[in-house]
Amino acid sequence: MRTSIATVCLSGGLVEKLHACAAAGFDGVEIMDADLVGAYESPEEIRELCRRLGLTVEMFQPFRDVEGVDDATFAQSLRRAEAKFEVMERVGADLLLVCSNVATATVDDDAVAAAQLGALADAAAAHGIRIAYEALAWGRYVDDYRRAWRIVEQADRPNLGVCLDSFHILSRGHDPSGIEEIPGDRIFFLQLADAPELDMDLLSWSRHHRLFPGEGAFDLTGFLSHVLRAGYAGPLSLEVFNDTFRQTDVTRTAAHARRSLTWLADRTAHARGWDDGRLGDAQEARRIDFVEVGGADLRELDELLDQLGFSFRGRHRSKAVRLWAAGDARVILNEEVRDATPVLTAFGLGVDDARAAADRAAALGAPKVFRRTYAGERELPAVAAPDGTQVYWDDVAAAASWAGEFEGGGPAAPLVASVDHINVAYAWQDFDEAVLFMSSVAALHTDSTAEVPGPHGLVRSQVMRSLDGVVRVPMNLAPPTAPLPTRHVAFRVDDVVAVARAARARGLRFLPVPGNYYDDLAARFDPDPGWLETLRGLDLLYDRDEAGEFVHFYTHTFGGVFLEVVERRAGYEGYGAANAPVRLSAQRELDRRG
Amino acid sequence: MRTSIATVCLSGGLVEKLHACAAAGFDGVEIMDADLVGAYESPEEIRELCRRLGLTVEMFQPFRDVEGVDDATFAQSLRRAEAKFEVMERVGADLLLVCSNVATATVDDDAVAAAQLGALADAAAAHGIRIAYEALAWGRYVDDYRRAWRIVEQADRPNLGVCLDSFHILSRGHDPSGIEEIPGDRIFFLQLADAPELDMDLLSWSRHHRLFPGEGAFDLTGFLSHVLRAGYAGPLSLEVFNDTFRQTDVTRTAAHARRSLTWLADRTAHARGWDDGRLGDAQEARRIDFVEVGGADLRELDELLDQLGFSFRGRHRSKAVRLWAAGDARVILNEEVRDATPVLTAFGLGVDDARAAADRAAALGAPKVFRRTYAGERELPAVAAPDGTQVYWDDVAAAASWAGEFEGGGPAAPLVASVDHINVAYAWQDFDEAVLFMSSVAALHTDSTAEVPGPHGLVRSQVMRSLDGVVRVPMNLAPPTAPLPTRHVAFRVDDVVAVARAARARGLRFLPVPGNYYDDLAARFDPDPGWLETLRGLDLLYDRDEAGEFVHFYTHTFGGVFLEVVERRAGYEGYGAANAPVRLSAQRELDRRG
After folding, report:
1. What is the dihedral of CA A218, A219, A221, A226, to 10 degrees?
2. Which amino acids does the record list as binding a divalent metal cation (chains A, B) (predicted)?
3. Residue of B9, B35, B40 to mutate when probing chain A, most A C-beta within 10 A
4. Chain B residues inside the 8 Å CB shell of A579
5. A86: which chain B residues are within 8 Å (Cβ-Cβ)?
6. I need a labelling partner for B364 at 20 to 30 A (CA). Which of A321, B8, B138, B415 fits?
């Protein structure tokens, strides 16, 4: 599988883009005409740079508004094309993308289009150049890949083929199975883009909201299967117009883009039983082994966990690290970090084969995390998520044997808890990258989304979870000008009222809930008055849906982390999104008061 | 004219919002239920705070999903309403917004809806509360204000009326003239929102992209006229759901919101020949009197202007300020500033009546700029635009007599120039505020928009200009994570080639244009080879449209400002947008090289 990317996907100047593409491991690039025009480097310099970096110039693009025009207009296009053929020779490109006419077409006739594209191809042949004709979703007359192919077939030139772009085909809801009727060697190029489901005009959707494969709603696995079955043997190339990726760091975005292709190839290979591009099996997360809070001085967290009813299970025998536990919930307090502020630094996932998970992560280009391990200690492989949170893996069969490295702790406490969910946070510009990371590397699956008004603006969230729902990682997306939402961990217990009562008796500082909230609860749910007073007295929040009930409370925030305790009654599967605005307001208000 | 705003428009907590609304000069507020629920302050405290701040609680909102339901569901709604009536009494609100049913309606029958709304109104009457029923654009059965009014009429309760929202009516393209058939005293409330023309689903458009009046595409003047003609005498209230305004500084956004209502009232009064809300006539900009660059040491700018062919017209007799001129173009270099980096600090507009312009600006809440003026000097009133640029006014009849305060300059140079345009820059979150400022305070008119790919992302621009096109102020909108585009001034000359040649001979540092750009020009325009070599040799850029041609060049950037020289041939009215990506790339590349 050869990989490629259009330079238009990335920010910066052309030279920077090429360096980033090479560093990310792409085999080739589509050079955007405008990127070359804006560069001080000559086409020859760019060609030599690509050669040195090991990048093939797979295509030069775009050339617009050729076919379906009158003779005079076509003559101008031929002249324009000759000038671009010269530039292509200089830059070392032998394939030109020609988009279906949007602006100048006046003749809706396949024969005319075929004759003109044929003449263009003949002119290109003199330069050893091939032409890939693509139906834009908003082409004046040609907006369907099947019609583009009929025209190419009719023109019948060896150096004229089609370019297929997943966006232009899937955004219009065209059936991609027809691709298999095109001979593979006449598909000159393949461009891949995903996109979210948006109800807006095609052009805006395409120009601003495309995503890398695996981040949107398109069935790209099915799409790619059709293309490969047709016999296409060229590169998989990304062409993703996205306002965000045009702004974000070019090196990081290129790596992110490259991961999306690895993911897509693997997924397609798995789905079809093919070998090419196939990685080891994804390691489904079976459970959360631990969560870790890092900070220079975590004594407040020790106290907090004690107040919640966790038991101290000891100090690590070689590191400034402590372990607290309650049932299946294990919390590591790690003081071997440089940042003074306590934050959620890591979590561990139990999988069938931790080594396989790590190998797969490496193949997906996830940055490996190094942690010093002493002789006799269990070594857990780990990678860093885009927000810096470290993700560790251990074999489920090992039954968290690393916990034996902690010494001097007390006995297990009676509290039975598990980690209900881990809430991580992203700036809007890192969100799509995070979704891809969590699905491809951490093998989690996209679940529900929500949008919550907070005092700093709308907070969007995307839940990632294991298929069985045991592992849940809601990701919160901060508005562009807002601070990142604070990461937190929620523990699930059987009786949140009892836990709250005991914690209060031990002096735990709850997040105080506004009294108006309880008046609103009364209006919305008509609760039993005694129950409402219990909730009010303990600063508990409440939600209900068709399936069940949710009762939960929050602790104060300690630096950059807070904890939540939840009880799920019957089949409640949500996260109390209706209560999130109240929580966000309360936290901000306390923060302002200092 | 009473003014009001819904608290949902603004960021922050409820108390902050109320303070900001009062500071901006609003007479009242619509309190959003969720804002109260998230506040630690009791309803009584909020009522007292509003009283102290002089804010009327005009409405409490929203109450959803009442009408068109089965009896059991309606009974629940009545119970829910009773709880909210109590809260309303405590917070001092006597009007409740009821939105047409979206979620629970199963009965599409006006009689049922009227009976249920009537019963709700009767329950409300016991608390002295009135109900304003509003048709949401996406209501299940009721999505048209005319149907909402028919139902209200049928229910026939004195405390049941309609709420009209410009978004819900205009977004669906419903004819607002029918409003005049509703008795004015049955229109209980009026919500105003503008919106851009967007081709997307109504709900997303409404929830994320509303704008304050004057910033979008709706004819709010016409809309408001119908409402006032109907006899409506309540407040004009803003309800603008916008992702951006939810994030931006609450005080600034409230002031911005308030300005939009002043603008709308004035515009409506002018259009209809009414007195209420009418300000003095807008002072159309007749010309640009001067542009000013500020900085601690501007000697490089002196040299630059000399190289361009400007003449030094003297030093100000009482300030560290120098004047350069060429024809009608006057450039002030102001070293009486604290910031070391040279930036475009101000420009002066010639108007028929500078005092009237300043009075109008004050009525629109524009922040006044103070500048020390010595005896015998001409005093020019000024305000600050949202990006900090100062806008001065002087009477056209005064013929820039202030220039006489500069002494010791040389004779006028032969170069004849004028200011073609002034390019200012905004972060995306300040853009709508800037559009409103430029149209309401500076009396400029929105003209063309463009979208230009730059190395930091897409740069959007909105041209503001006088009706005759003599004054042009393109505003560039920076992507969220990008640095602000550098502000610049463009001078128009008759022969840009001659100016460029002379400037080059005097040692001016041009922005070097990539050679690839000229190869692309050759492909696009097939220019005469000699002309192409002239352009290439002088680093000139070129554009052509149906009307004419545009030839221009840029200087190096000095701190935070650069200059442009343009020649417009025949009827070319643009700004060379096709060349902007090349310019942005070149500037960034030079910046990186340092």
Report:
1. -110
2. 134, 165, 191, 239
3. B40
4. none
5. 519
6. B8
Percentage of residues of chain B with pLDDT beyond 90: 83
| Residues in chain B closer than 8 A to A426 (CB atoms) | none
* pLDDT tens digits along B358-372: 999 999 999 999 887
* B257 and B298 assigned to the same domain: no
CB contact under 8 A, B480 and A479: no
The reply to whether A22 and A154 lie within a common domain is yes
Q: What's the one-letter identity of residue A438?
A: M
Which residues of chain B have a CB within 8 Å of the CB of A522?
A: 83
The tens digit of pLDDT for each residue in A520-534 reads: 999 999 999 999 999
Identify the CATH number of the domain in which residue A400 sits: 3.10.180.10
Tell me: do B404 and B421 sit in the same domain.
Answer: no
Q: Are residues B45 and B96 in the same domain?
A: yes
| pLDDT computed for residue B352 by the predictor | 97
Establish whether B421 is an annotated binding residue.
yes
What pLDDT does residue A458 have?
Answer: 81
Between CA B302 and CA A362 the distance in angstroms is: 58
pLDDT, one tens digit per residue, over B8-39 is 999 999 999 999 999 999 999 999 999 999 99
Residue A185 makes CB contacts below 8 A (sequence gap 6+) with A161, A231, A233
Instruction: Say if residue B143 is in the same domain as residue B222.
Output: yes
Q: Do A522 and B12 touch (CB under 8 A)?
A: no
For the cut 80, the answer to whether the pLDDT of residue A158 exceeds it is yes
Contact between A475 and A438 under an 8 Å Cβ cutoff? The reply is yes
Distance from C-alpha of A163 to C-alpha of A30, rounded to nearest angstrom: 12
Domain membership flag for residue A413: no
Distance CA A38, CA B588 (A): 11
Residue A34 pLDDT more than 80? yes
For residue B189, the cross-strand partners are B163
Closest CA to A67 of A104, A96, A35: A104
State the smallest CA–CA distance between residue A359 and chain B in angstroms: 34
Q: What is the pLDDT of residues B236-284, one digit of tens each?
A: 999 998 887 777 889 999 999 999 999 999 999 999 898 888 999 999 9
Shared domain for A513 and A539, answered yes or no, is yes
Is residue B345's pLDDT more than 80?
Answer: yes
Q: Residues B486, B459: contact at Cβ < 8 Å? A: no
- What SS3 state is found at B188? strand
Question: How far does the CA of residue A402 sit from the closest CA of chain B (Å)?
Answer: 42
Give the pLDDT of residue A353: 97
C-alpha to C-alpha distance for A154 and B134, rounded to whole angstroms: 59
Give the residue from B272, B299, B334 where a domain finishes: B272
Cβ of B479 within 8 Å of Cβ of A200? The answer is no
SS3 (DSSP) at B80: helix
Q: How many domains does chain A have?
A: 3
Average pLDDT over residues A357-382: 90
Check whether B208 has a pLDDT greater than 90: no
Determine the residue of chain A that is closest to B46 in CA distance: A516
Report how far apart, in Å, the C-alpha atoms of A1 and of each of A156, A275, A361, A366, A448 are: 28, 11, 19, 20, 33
A191 is in an annotated binding site: yes
> Which of B171, B107, B104 lies closest to B137, judged by CA?
B171
Structure tokens at A438: 């969590």
Task: Give ipTM to 2 decimals.
Answer: 0.88
How far from the centroid of its chain's Cα atoms is residue B498's Cα? 39
Side-chain-side CA neighbours of B411 within 13 Å: the count stands at 2
Helix, strand or coil, per DSSP, at residue B515: helix
Domain range spanning residue B342? 287-408
Residue of B12, B38, B208 with shortest CB distance to A514: B38
The Cα of B220 is separated from the nearest Cα of chain A by a number of Å equal to: 24
Residue A189 near residue A152, CB atoms below 8 Å: no
